[in-house]
């Protein structure tokens, strides 16, 4: 099944966008992390622990399959969707993986965090039937098809999924 777009609000600038249109067709894998209820990526939260794992753990697929010196999201791009409105979250309090420094000038990428668009009735959590209590990770192939769905805390499962077919650096 394709990963169908839905309306969201980009956290950094409160701009309404379609989540599926916020990513380019550039050959990268995507991990869309949908935060559980009350998860604002604070220390100890499932979203923070996922980001810490992906950024720092030896078995992290981002670390294993991204070339030395390349941007952290060159192969696998993480995007986070929170349940809170954009006014309730602080961009500067987000994990560094959601605010990576990229490119030649190491500029910060502010376009990895989203909130639900509440103007149209149902939000992305309702439209995609995502468990609001626990959230989840949706792994999307480069051709925009859903490859896997995992709980936010299934770090080993995520690593094992990519280990089955990716070649380490």
Describe, in short, the structure shown.
The protein is an alpha+beta fold and 169 residues long. 17% of the residues lie in helices and 22% in strands.
How does this structure look, described?
This protein is of the alpha+beta class. Helix content is 17%, strand content 22%. It has 4 helices and 9 strands, in the order βββααββββαββα. The strands form 2 sheets. A 7-stranded mixed β-sheet has the order 2-1-7-4-3-8-9. It starts with 6 loop residues before the first strand and ends in a 6-residue tail after the last helix.
List unreliable stretches of 5+ residues. Answer: none
Give the N-to-C terminal Cα separation: 30 Å
State mean pLDDT (0 to 100 scale): 95
Report strand %. 15-25%
Largest sheet: 7 strands, mixed
Helix and strand composition category = alpha+beta
The shape, in one word, is globular
Order of helices and strands: EEEHHEEEEHEEH
Total strand segments: 9
- Biggest sheet strand order reads 2-1-7-4-3-8-9
Helix content: 10-25%
Number of helices: 4
Rg, Cα atoms, Å: 15 Å
Record keyword descriptors for this entry.
9 strands, 22% strand, alpha+beta, single chain, 169 residues, 4 helices, seven-stranded mixed sheet
Detail the topology: elements first, then pairings:
Blueprint: E1 7-10, E2 16-18, E3 29-34, H1 46-56, H2 61-65, E4 76-81, E5 101-102, E6 107-108, E7 113-116, H3 124-127, E8 136-140, E9 146-150, H4 155-163
